[in-house]
Design a protein that fits this description.
Signal peptide: 1-25
Strand order of the largest sheet: 1-5-6-7-8-2
Protein name: SH3b domain-containing protein
Number of strands: 26
Organism: Tannerella sp. oral taxon BU063 isolate Cell 6/7/9
Oligomer: single chain
Keywords: Signal
Mean pLDDT: 78
Low-confidence stretches: 1-31, 236-248
Shape: elongated
Strand content: 35-45%
Length: 394
């Protein structure tokens, strides 16, 4: 039975264009997805249903998937070209789910969309529209439905309290049953820990365990707190790091002292020269890093020979890369996400097609955190180690 403050849910799988949801300009040229005020048509004397909210949204954005879903919602037989429509309507729960089957369509950028609503005061409803791909969230919009005007008006921002994560790093799950919103990290070891946004009954949501969550770094760290690093030689004069990327590194053939312990004396130096190394930092103590490393051969048939050693942290460099192009990394003043943010770090590009994570010099590390310095600007701060990349990507 549907009662006040009971969420009614709709999962709509919506076709967005090939670009991200933020870049979806509509026919009027300057309004984007989730920015239109929508009129909801209902039967006189009736409360709106999830189907009514769905029609208002789908009619505003007539993409191939939306058109097919709208036809199915109206009892017609949609005939999308080259795609198989997956559709599930649970009318008693106010739930609808539909999508193009991932193996039947010649496009891979159709997300899974959800829509649900919660009843609030004075007959108003909070309506949510959500869209995910397998790599995270593309669209999350909330509307206030006013029964007097019959309009769904988009909120300027989600009604979340205490949430400082970027929802684009999550698979957002609107509730089919219950009232809370759940966010799950997508299947990558750098993904953040799952979280729950609890419905407060007043038109908003509060993050469960916010105080503890933001005292800690994001989850999805490299196993046992390990993270990849490299020597300065990695950034020599090459096609991978052309000027101006490589002009801030200094000499790459300097000898790097190796130590027999975190407080021990130097044993012998290593001179990386022009070779590339595979390096994993196992732990950090008293300004030194314990590394598992090997020189990599250009011949793929040659098996690398790994060894362990202690080196100064400042001898190492880390490549910072966000797995989501639209998600910037944050450099903090202290190793906690409640501290003062110094700047955001975005993926840096050599050209329009290739990401080359700019190397940051390693100064210190704690569980889940790296203290780093940018070689070009000398900005220094703390960043979550989950953003450390083992290499560039194209």
């Amino acid at each position: 039975m549907k009662t006040k403050n009971s969420p009614l849910i709709l999962t709509l799988l919506l076709a967005l264009l090939a670009c991200s949801a933020a870049a979806h300009a509509q026919s009027d040229g300057d309004k984007q997805w989730g920015t239109h005020v929508l009129r909801v048509h209902i039967q006189p004397g009736k409360r709106p249903t999830i189907a009514d909210f769905a029609r208002a949204f789908l009619q505003q954005y007539p993409t191939p998937l939306n058109t097919a879903a709208l036809a199915k919602l109206d009892g017609k037989a949609p005939q999308p070209k080259s795609c198989t429509l997956e559709y599930l309507l649970d009318a008693p729960s106010g739930y609808l789910k539909y999508s193009f089957h991932e193996n039947s369509c010649n496009r891979t950028d159709y997300p899974t969309m959800e829509m649900c609503y919660w009843r609030t005061d004075a007959g108003h409803c909070l309506v949510a529209v959500n869209g995910n791909t397998y790599m995270g969230n593309l669209l999350l919009v909330f509307y206030d439905y006013n029964p007097t005007t019959g309009l769904m008006t988009p909120l300027s921002k989600p009604p979340f309290k205490d949430l400082h994560d970027d929802v684009r790093e999550f698979i957002v799950q609107l509730p089919r049953k219950g009232k809370d919103i759940h966010l799950e990290g997508w299947s990558d070891r750098s993904a953040p820990a799952p979280l729950t946004l609890r419905w407060d009954g007043l038109g908003g949501f509060t993050l469960v365990g916010a105080a503890e969550r933001y005292r800690q770094p994001g989850a999805g760290l490299y196993q046992n707190g390990q993270f990849p690093a490299t020597f300065k030689t990695r950034f020599g004069d090459s096609d991978e790091y052309p000027t101006p990327f490589n002009v801030h590194f200094g000499k790459s053939d300097e000898a790097i002292p190796l130590y027999n312990g975190p407080s021990g004396s130097a044993t012998h130096p290593i001179t990386p020269g022009d070779f590339c190394y595979d390096i994993t930092v196992e732990k950090v103590q008293t300004g030194r890093a314990y590394i598992h490393y090997a020189q990599m051969s250009e011949d793929p048939t040659v098996e690398p020979s790994y060894a362990y050693a202690w080196v100064d942290c400042s001898s190492l460099y880390v490549l910072l890369r966000s797995r989501h192009e639209s998600v910037a990394m944050t450099l903090f003043a202290e190793p906690t996400r409640t501290s003062r943010p110094l700047q955001t770090i975005k993926n840096e590009y050599v050209d329009d097609s290739q990401i080359r994570p700019f190397p940051w010099q390693l100064l210190e590390a704690r569980q889940g955190w790296l203290k780093v310095r940018h070689l070009r600007t000398h900005v220094t701060g703390w960043v979550e180690s989950r953003f450390a990349s083992s290499d560039f990507v194209q």
